[in-house]
Structure of Glycerophosphodiester phosphodiesterase:
Amino acid sequence: MQQSSKSSRGCFKKIALAVGLCVAVGTTLVVQHSKAYGIMARIHHGLIVCTPGTGLVTTPVSTSSPHDGVPSMLRLELANGPDGRVMVEPGSNELEGVLASAHNSNTLLMLDINSASADNVVKLVRKTRMRDRVILVPSDHKDTETVLHADSKIMVAIPVNSERDAYAAHKLAGRHPYAAYLSPSATPHLFALTHRDAEAIITDNPGAPKGSTSEFLAERPVDIMITQQPTQLADTTTNKS
């Protein structure tokens, strides 16, 4: 009888161990899946092309490097709505629904906070598990600090217009991931200097001819380019891997 009891306990231990391993493996797969569609993973594959979108995440997006002019990221404008809800403009779509749709379609988003509550935006990003797929663009220094303190993982865009700005952005962010937002008129030196500390470099399409755009990208470390016409960048983007 004692031998049978020991045998049962041994079986229970083996079952518990097996269940624990299954849970651990399942959790690892979920985390790896999430990281595969995160901003840093996309940057590794090549330039992220970002284009202004609407509140409806129906615009086709690329899940790797851009091809045939398909953008990898959508930029959306936020505003305060009724009852404190965060809305996406133009239109009447709530941010929470847009984030959920973006999560399901593996879409990267750049969100301009504008007049919306930075705290509420961060809460919705966390709730919809979009922390590694969103870049927040604060409206001012106060919102930047709010976002940096509210979450340690969500990437924040910080404007950089000079070497002094570059050092200030790095100091402000600390260990928090941030993207430096530079004007396309900034010098290659400022791009390189900022790239040393920032996780990502954002700039707008310089609006140059195709050949000049290729030269622009060759001379500057750019990770995310914002453009109204993504098809014009399709032939100039190169794979970074």
In short: Residues 15-19, 21-34, 63-68 have pLDDT under 50 and may be disordered.
